[in-house]
Structure formats: C-alpha cells, structure tokens
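Wed. Picked up where I left off yesterday with DUF2254 domain-containing protein. The coffee machine is broken again, so keeping this brief.
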Amino acid sequence: MPTWSFRFQLGQYVRTSLWILPVLGLAAGALLGEAALAMDDVVGIPTGSRYTATTATGVLTAIVGAMVALLGFVVTIGVLVVQQATGTLSPRYMRLWYRNPLQKTVLSLFAGTFAFAFTLLRRIGPDTVPDLGVTLAGLAVAVSLVMLLVYLNRFVHDVRPVAIADRVCRTGLRVLGVSLEAQGRCVVLDEPDDGPRRDAPARVVRTEQGGAVQGLDVAGLVRAASRYDCVLVVAHRVGDFVPPGSVLLEVHGTPRSPVEPRRLAGLVALGAERTVEQDPAFALRVLADIAARALSSAVNDPTTAVQVLNHIETFLHGVGRSELRGRHVLADLAGRPRVVVPGHGWEEYLELGVTEVREYGVGSLQVCRRLRALLDGLLAGVPEARRPAVRRQLALLDDAVEREYPEGFRRTLARTGDRQGIGGGGSSPAGPARRDGET
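Structure written out below (tokens, as returned):
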C-alpha cells in the first residue's frame, strides 16, 4: 500500500505538472470526435449548414495546424516566464507558477481541439462529411481564441513583480488559514514545563535519502502514537532540509509493540525543495527574495522592493493576529499527548520578512522609510506580547541607518516612516527605538 508520503508527493507532482491535463485533453478530444461522428449519423443537419468534402478537409486541416501553432505560442510564453522568474524575481516562485490553472486549461483546450479535428479528418470521403463535427470544431476554435486572449491578458498583467507579490501573499495567507483550521480540528495542549521531549527518546527514526520536509501527516502520526502508546516528536519543522541519515522522528515512552521505522517515516514527506502546501513561511521567503533581488546592483529597483514590502506587511499583519506556537503538542481523543510538532513563531516570521530587505536596502532612503512605516504599523496592530520583537527590529533598523547615513539631515529622512517610501508625506521622524527593558 502506498505510504502517505508517496501520495503527498504524487499530489504535488500532479499540481505542478504541465503535461498531465493536456494529455487528458488529447484523450478527451479524440473521444468527443468519435462521439460527434456517431451523432452525425443520427442528427439531421440542415442543408445550408452542410460542407463539401474539400471545404471540410481544408477547415479541419487549418484547425489542426492552428492548434499546434498556438500550443507552441503558449509554451514560448512559459519559457519567458521561467527566464524572468530566474533573472529578476525568484526561482522559488516557479513552484507557485506551475500550479496556474489557467495555463493548464488553455493547453488542454488547444490539445483537445487538435485531437478533435484530427479525429474528424479520417471520416471525410467523397460522399461522407461529418457536418456536425466540423461545426463543433469551429466553435471549439472560437472558444480557444477567447481563452487565448484571456490567458494573454492575465500573462501581461500578472508577470509584473507587484502582481506576483500579491498572488504569493494571498497564497501564503490561505495556507496559513488552512494550517490554523487544521490545528483547530486537533486537540492542542498547552505544553507544561515538564512536557514531552524532556526525557531521552527510546528510539529514533532516521531518514535514508534526506531532502526538504514538505509535509506531515499529523493525523496519521497521532494515530500511530496512540497505537504504539508512545509520544512521537517530529525532529524538524516543515521547510527544513534534512541530510541523509538524520533523525526524522523521536519515539518517547515504552511502545506496547515494536515500532515500524519505515511506516513511521512514510508519514513525513521529503522532497527536493520546499513547497507551500504546509509551509506558509515559504510564501514569505519568496516575497523576501523578490524584494532582495530588486535591491541587487544588477536590478537596482528600490521602488519594486517598496511595493513588495506592502505585501510583506499584509502577510505579517495576518501572521501577527494568528495564534502561533513554537511547538504544537497534539493529543488523542482521550487528551493524552501523542505528537510534538515544531512550528514557526512570530519572531521567525518577522525576521524572515524584514531582515534581508533591511540589510540590502539600507542604502535606499525610500526602502528605509517604507520599512519603518511597516514596523510602526505592526507595532500598533499586533498584540502586546508580540511588540517587543517589533521594537527589536526597529532598533536594528536604527543601527543600520546610523551606520549608513553619517549626515544628520539624511539620517533624519531615513528614520521618517513613509508608506510610499518617498512622497507620501511621511510621519514625524522617529526617535531611537527602545530596547526591551528600557523606560
């Protein structure tokens, strides 16, 4: 029986594959062509809607050639997206772009229309013309052209960095919401000081091949721990890279039956790279990459970095108002702790979102001003318990500005929050950020 890890990776492959739906479109087009041929024998076609054999052959031949050309056109656009993503955006974004349903739909429609028209060609003879099929093929071409225009419009608008940042942000927040909803369906315990993982593990489960942790079957882990009557501790967070031979799971307690390492390892999905499926921090990683690439000397586009900061702020506000835990202690239905899963805390999300932008963008006045406005907004918008982390980031920003701008006037400009970076009528210049414990 396939393990959960295999099924998870298969689902990831299907979601990111660009060939599966077009192949299904080819098969569907051929089947619909056969159905149209069968219907043509029983459906009466008005005399004015019939075609000569020469006309039908020419029309269908033109359709076959046009669909092949359009398939090549869409593939060319895909190559351009890859080049832009790897050159000016972030290669990590491709994991999300491969999931674009519109592109797969367009490719499937073109492939299906090609197969449909090609299937009809074999029935054309001196006295036999599939009139219904030729008419339907023409309608399919019309729909294909409309979908091509929709796709071209989406491509032209969505290839901009700010549009990509918006999509990545919305995807990350959706994954975060799904994760919190799944957490709400589990019994989550408040971890006591002497909670699980304080004792030495009775046994460890190691990974053979290694890779990035892409997902966990949390429900399966809880069931396995209940079956063995033990506590399972996941040694790595989703998104971590695990070298071959490393500990994947720790078994605490005395299992009532021999532990099956291979079966337990199958509840943790490892892959070549991170995926957003259970890792909302990966979306923030992509946003930070796009902003950092815009601030590189090769691109030198601080305005794009400021626009990306808008979406980083949106993401951080969503995270800041969510219930985050550094470790999740999950219990069975009887309330006994069964699984310990490490998670990302607020400080880690905050550092991921602003550290590289600050380090690479401190030389740009508008980046400094927008970053300060972002942190000021978080300081006012997140719960009190999470504000010390924001104050520490403000202090780091002050230190960076102090080193970069020795002139008093420019330093004052850099320390003035402005939601547009420059030209937004910034707020009053900020004083030095207070460290924790200062009054």
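Quick read: The chain is about 60% helix and 10% strand.
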